[in-house]
Structures are given as C-alpha cells and as structure tokens.
Amino acid sequence: MRICICGTGYVGLTTGVCLGFLGHDVACLDTDEAKVASLQRGESPIYEPGLAELMGAAAGKVRYTTDADEAMLGAEVVFIAVGTPPMDTGEPDLRYLRSAAESIGQRLGDGFVVVVNKSTVPIGSGNWVGSIIRESFERKHGKKADGHFAVASNPEFLREGAAIGDSLYPDRIVLGSDSAQALEVMYRLYKPVVEQNFAAPPFAPRPEGVAAVPLVTTDLASAELIKYAANAFLALKISYINEIGSLAERVGADISMVAKGIGLDRRIGPRFLQAGLGWGGSCFGKDTSALIATAADYGLTMPIVAAAREVNRRQRERVIEKLLGELKILKGRTVGLLGLAFKPQTDDLRDAPALDIARGLIDKGCRVVAHDPVAMERFRKEYGGAEVKLAAHAEDVAEEADAVVLVTEWTEYSDLNWAKMASAMRNPLVLDGRNFLDGKKLSAAGLRVHRVAG
Ligand code: NAD
C-alpha cells in the first residue's frame, strides 16, 4: 500500500520505517529541511536502538521528503504524526495538526484516502481534523469532499528506547473511526503486525509468546480517550509508588521490597513501580495536563490525575531538599549529574528531570557537571553549554564534587569505578534518584549513598 506520514519525529519516523520494512511504499514527509536532509543521507536524527538498522533494511521502500505534493500523491493512507506540545494553559498546541490537515485537504485526489491521527490529540480532534480537511479540499477544488476521505484515530503507545519492538510487536493496536471503509483499509495496512506473519529482523527479534496482536476497533472519541487514559494510568502508577516511597523512608521500610511485594499481585503487576525521580518525557506531563483541561471543558475535575502530577513535581524538588539537608549550604558546591535524558536508551530531553534539577541547583549557586552517554550533543544544541559543564566520561562528574546524583538509570552507570570516583570527590555523597545503584558496592567504595525515594 502507498502511505504518507506527516511528521518524522520519534513516532512518525518509527512508524514509517516499520511500515516500509513490512513492505508498504512509504513517504516520510517533514517540514524540517535539516531533518529530512539527514534522513536522506541515511542518518537517523534521533537516538533510538535498532532504528538505523531498520532504516537500512527498509531502504528501498521508504523515502524522505519535504515535498508534500509528491509525498501524498496516490497515498491510500496519510498519517498525521506531528508534535502536539503543551501550551502554558495545559492544552496541547494544535497548530501543527491544523497545518497538516489543511495541507492534506488541498492534496486529496479522486481516490479514497484514510487520514489517520497518530498524534496524541484531545478528544474530538478527529472530527475537527475532518472539518479542516473538508474545508481545505472544497476551497481548493470547489466541490464536495464527501467520499474522498475518512478520518481514523490510531493512537501510538510506543516507548522511546524500545520504539521498534513496540511498533512491530505491540500489546495492541487501537483503531477508531466512524467509517467502516477506513477501518477495512487500516486492517489491511496492519495485517502483518496483527497476524505476526512477517520475518522478524535479526536486530529486533520477535519476543517469545507473541503470536497475534489484539486489534481494538472502536469509534473516534473512544480511541482518542484510550490514549489519554492509558498514559494517565501509567503516570499515576509511578506517582503512587513514589508517594508510598516517601512513607517508606519515614517508617524505615525498603520501597524496593514493598514494590516487589505488591507487584507480584497479578492485579497490580510489577511494571511502573520503580520508585525514584518520577516520570519525564514528552508524553506523561503533556497528556495528563491535556486530560485535566478536557475534563474542565465538561465541568469535571480529575483529582487523581492532578495528584499524580503534583507528586511527580515534588520528586524533583526532593533532590534539592536532600542535598540541602546533607550539605547544609549549596552555594559554591559542585554537583555531578549522571544522566540527562528523561530515561535510558533515548536522547530525548523533553521534560527531563535532569533539566529541572540542574536549574534548581544553579539557582541555589551550585556548579553543575553532567554526563549522558547519548544526550549530551542534543543538550548542547538545545540548551547551550554555558551553565552546565558537560563531562566527557561519566566518572569525570565526580571530580571535586560535593555530591553526585544518579538521574538516569543507564546500565553502564551501575559499573563505574566508584572507588576512583570516591577519592576524586570533595565529599563522597551519592544520591540515587532511581533506586538503581548497588548500595553495598558503593558503601564498600567509601561512598555515602542516599535515595531520592524510599
Ligand atoms: P516530534 O516533535 O519528535 O516530531 C514531530 C515532527 O513533525 C517534527 O519533525 C516536525 O518538524 C514535524 N512537523 C510539524 N509540522 C509538520 C507538518 N505540517 N508536516 C510535516 N511535518 C511536520 O514528536 P513525536 O515525539 O514524534 O510526537 C508526535 C506525536 O505523537 C505527539 O502528539 C506525541 O504526543 C505523540 N506520541 C509520542 C510518543 C513518544 O514517545 N514520543 C509516544 C506516543 C505518542
């Protein structure tokens, strides 16, 4: 099938390359010329394990372009995967969505096109996108758009850092549309994923036990709400364990054991119960605030979701509070940060806890030295190198440091030469923001280890 993807960010690029790998003919369209130029050279503009290899494997099936006419020509399915970043009001900024919808409306041909919202959009956006496309088509062609297109919602659940596996072997595919014809086209598109009958690439093997993928077909509004409800639930699971972590610390309980003890209950499950600095990234913060804003439009409050956000905000402040408690004076201190990305296996810095922690420490007069295995280049590009010194090697953040904070749980940070780091530090204090480090090993190396949660 001929496919066009508008927006080649984390979601659009992964989707386009996976669909190309599955045999579809894909045009990845973006307005960012530098990004497209890098893709045309065969270079991925983001760090995502397996993506470069999959781009190579799908090379003949995927093209990258800024030319909307060429990209949409003859496409049966046009995905919208543009960003929907948060505005100050908490609502998502829909200007990229509007612009993509207008562009699609102008380029609809005589055939039937399914326009698929993959961006996370407020409930009701499917109808809104439909009306923009209709108006744009009618303005351009002077005739009714009926029968030329239908809108579907296909929310994305991939996790950055595991995006390829999540796209090829998802837990489920959700499709929402009021058009049976659109659902039929989407079923054909995803058939190889639903039936799992494609040869898995060697760098992204099929997980054991994955035989078929459940397909949830529903109406537009339900599909849109599924996405928000899923993200809000995951966010509150993390905040819940962090709230319990604060109490565990006071009563002398070990939050890791508490999490294990409750996670073995199959009704609860072990995932998203790692106490620590809380969530970051482009989705949970944005989507929980959008959910609250949508509810407010209908005269509803979402106290549970609001509380999850508040707990998450407090976890970042706890780093500063804990350091203040230990060091008494922060002015003039040097603090090393291990990790900048909002989680391991990505270079994404959107709403990363490291940003708030660095800001808070700098505002208190600290000197901040940071390291990240893959996100330093992006950090330099997006935030400059003036306020936070970047260390070439992880162990260098300990140099003359009064404390080192583990912010992102990159595997390689568990294996640092802690004895060497301890002797390089002015004060051998480590604050483990992810309950990730081996406390006994660090203590044996001469370090005092504290946790941010529990
Ligand atoms: P992103 O910012 O990485 O990428 C968006 C891309 O869209 C950019 O490259 C931008 O240049 C391009 N763009 C903007 N306007 C365009 C237009 N009119 N035509 C073509 N391209 C255009 O965003 P992302 O992280 O991929 O997220 C995309 C959407 O998916 C968001 O709504 C997000 O909430 C949702 N989502 C993201 C994730 C994730 O983990 N990143 C997971 C699930 C859902």
Could you characterize the architecture of this molecule?
With 454 residues, this protein is of the alpha/beta class. The chain folds into three domains: 2-218, Rossmann fold (3-Layer(aba) Sandwich); 228-309, Orthogonal Bundle (N-(1-d-carboxylethyl)-l-norvaline Dehydrogenase, domain 2), CATH 1.10.1040.10; 314-451, Rossmann fold (3-Layer(aba) Sandwich), CATH 3.40.50.720. Helices cover 43% and strands 14% of the residues. It has helices spanning 10-21, 33-40, 51-57, 68-72, 95-107, 125-141, 163-168, 180-195, 220-251, 255-263, 284-297, 303-327, 353-363, 376-383, 418-424, 439-444, and strands at 2-6, 25-29, 62-65, 77-80, 113-117, 149-153, 173-177, 215-218, 334-338, 367-371, 388-390, 403-406, 429-432, 448-451. It has an eight-stranded mixed sheet with strand order 3-2-1-4-5-6-7-8, with helices on both faces. A six-stranded parallel sheet has the order 11-10-9-12-13-14. Helix 1 (10-21) links the parallel strand 1 and strand 2. The longest helix has 32 residues, at 220-251. Bound molecules: nicotinamide-adenine-dinucleotide (NAD).
Tell me roughly what share of residues is in helical segments: 40-55%
Strand count, sense and barrel status of the largest sheet are: 8 strands, mixed
| pLDDT < 50 runs, ≥5 residues | none
CATH superfamily membership of the largest domain: NAD(P)-binding Rossmann-like Domain
The CATH C-level class name of the largest domain? Alpha Beta
**Side-by-side strand order of the widest sheet:** 3-2-1-4-5-6-7-8
What does the average pLDDT come to?
Answer: 96
